[in-house]
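Appendix B. Chain record.
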Amino acid sequence: MRTRIVTNGPIRLHTVEEGNPDGPVLILVHGWPDTHMLWDRVVPHLADEFRIIRFDNRGAGASTVPRDVAAYRLTHLATDLFAVIDAMSPDTPVHLLAHDWGAVLCWEAVCEPGAAERIASYTSVSGPNLDHLAMWMRRRLRQARPLGPLEQALASAYTVLFQIPGLPVPALRWWFSRHWPGFVGAFDRTDPAAIGPLAPTVADDMVHGLKLYRANVRRHLLRPRERRTDVPVQLVQNLRDLAVRPVGYEDTERWVTDLHREPLDAGHWSPRSHAGELAELTTRFLRTVEAGTAAQSRNAE
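Structure tokens predicted for this chain:
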């Protein structure tokens, strides 16, 4: 394992590299309230075949913690990802595997113009494109079919509290951070022992990560943009996810030219509870993408 600091302007991103140095590059992106340690159980299943890069997002772990809420907008988070790509794999497109807010920021990145030249594939876990989600909700409501949006709205009700500065901080810092494995175990109906280890910064990461919600949720749900991508996407749908309901991905084919859906009988934190299964889905998808790329290169010759 090798560590490195990648910079994006004033932002310093703590980056870890491991695995097969000659393999395809796979970047792992965590969400809230995690760090790169989210993937500790997944990496051993991937390390023989892939060169693995993982990093702490801004506001988490050993990376820079901006003070302003606006610094956590998805547009800025996507530039962090591209900075890591440019530093770690400047000449070869990379594969992405991302969870929760990591998946949300990767959706932002893969929908940027020219993304397919730098990103070979994207495996998304439990993190929607907020613009797609908002447009799906509006379509359903126009059609007087509110049950799907209502299901997701109830699942996301906690985010309303996260919008209020200061309100959830004591609970997160003094209770949830100390009992997180037990909470996640109950939330996902899984063994709490499968949730650790947690980063030593988890209390700070919980509090700083609230700015992700404040900077982005209302902004994208109230003013959604049309966002499309030609990057091949594998959508891993955790069937028992109580935070991100599978119904919210109903329209994803409208925005992704090459979409593959894979169900997984897991809760929200599948990278911790179902690491082997998630790694297997990722490996199979990446092999398919790599084989297609190799065939295209041979045909071009």
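Further analysis of this model is presented in Appendix C.
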